[in-house]
């Protein structure tokens, strides 16, 4: 997507310096900062500290990490060590393990002398595939928005609600939940997007920054406002992303997603999940019981970053002294609350049958 008229991916290969570059998302939406990732420790820290974030982007970053590992030492032992260290960075998003497993399976049969070049080419391919997957999710999700728009009076916008940031910053480009929004906006369909703040890291601010940069009308709201808006007919559809989806269609996404799904179900609002196929964990059936939920630092809940009136960045404490902070980063929405899954191949029911029919090749090979 574009930043001040210039097209950017969330990561890209700097061929002049032979190094990966990323947008450092810790600085957004206040400053647009790019960084080079030069060491294995920097790859690990970039994921852990959320310089890069979002399941698809984490997977692509890990693939480039494996490429660096093979450049430094292409042995089997170092491949296993790199796989383990990168896989340990964050536990919930399945794309991380998916990308690492794909890299290892492709590289192990090769002569060690051939692994560095092959690993870099594979990382490029994974990044490019992510862009196309998300573009196609947008094409398929656009049909839902077009249908809603066709039932509205001329000029009245389609009102969408999204949670967290499932935008191009969370992928290599386009985004998952935002891809249909961008394509609808570019097609001339009037839109208005309700953007949840998504405490504690306020990733909704990233979505607002993205949408504003692209010219999509939106409003930044508190996490608890969505149910009220749905009760008053102000939401036509909810679209969220996912960090891991089970083979029966349970969806693990940023904390607070489950509450949005409950409110949507209670008010008859369609609740859709934008689902890239690498985010499906075919080895898991029941999400609440089986998906590991990341617990992040309590400081993320007790402190908040923002800008002062003079534009300088600062961090302030928002809780009383002695108050403990709890910070589960994700929750699971059961498939019964999901209207449908918007995938790169089409839209399917959030059921074992729906997913198996949409991805017969993957469901049979990975279970």
TrEMBL record:
User: Under which pathway is this protein filed?
Assistant: Amino-acid biosynthesis; L-methionine biosynthesis via salvage pathway; L-methionine from S-methyl-5-thio-alpha-D-ribose 1-phosphate: step 1/6
Annotated site (Transition state stabilizer): 164
UniProt-recorded Gene Ontology molecular function terms: S-methyl-5-thioribose-1-phosphate isomerase activity
Q: What is its EC number?
A: 5.3.1.23
* SUPFAM superfamilies recorded: NagB/RpiA/CoA transferase-like (SSF100950)
Task: Name the keywords, alphabetized.
Answer: Amino-acid biosynthesis, Isomerase, Methionine biosynthesis
The similarity comment for this entry is: Belongs to the EIF-2B alpha/beta/delta subunits family. MtnA subfamily.
Q: What is this protein called?
A: Methylthioribose-1-phosphate isomerase
